[in-house]
Amino acid sequence: MVLGTSHYGAPERFGLTRKPYVTPFGPAGTDPAVVDRLIAEGGEAVVVEDYCHAVEHSIEFQVIFLQHLLGPEVRLVPVLCGPFAAATHGPGRPEDDPAVARFLGALAELDAREGNRLAWVLGVDLAHVGRRYGDELVARAGVGQLAEVEERDRRRIAAVAAADADGFWELVRENGDDLKWCGAAPLYAFLKATAPGRSALLRYEQWNIDPASVVSFAALAFGRGAAAPPGEGDA
Description:
By secondary structure, the protein is an alpha/beta fold. Helix content is 38%, strand content 21%. The protein has 8 helices and 10 strands. The strands form 3 sheets. A 5-stranded mixed beta sheet has the order 5-2-6-1-7, with helices on both faces. Strands 8-10-9 form a 3-stranded antiparallel beta sheet, covered by helices on one side. A two-stranded antiparallel sheet has the order 3-4.
């Protein structure tokens, strides 16, 4: 399962495709049985949107990495997660939308059914701050107000690492997500579908995409089973 940020899809919608991803390693096919089942069970929140998958970078990068690690013919279920706009800028949770709740339930059933046979990968990044993203701030990675951004990022990461979906969403809703975490929807969907038992923050960074704008990102690892001892996986 590869959950990616959808930069072009509609809010409160999940984009699926049956088509393979073609990379320099060759085609990586989707698992048609799982895709068709999610389409059937997901209801109105599901959109078969080959176009968005064709132009979206968030999953295609993950496909290349997976092919390198697991072989060119790895089977995928790629899902582009549109933003949960209503729950970001209003009260409640994403699953208050019945269509979103139905699809999140389908993901949870898939995870319960497949267990350790199923691996989850998320293609996301975190905050988007600075002139490019509509802020007056001239953003510099790790400097000035970006130190505060890191502190807020790490609080959200801590909630994700603790599998606290509700706590995570409360932090996303602060100021209508003024940090503009484009990975919020895939992360929330993952937490609701899996409730991972173990986690670790491997790395956190900020990067100047241009002289006045910063994107933050992190690498996290999750596992099934018992939670890690205190201190391990803390953000």
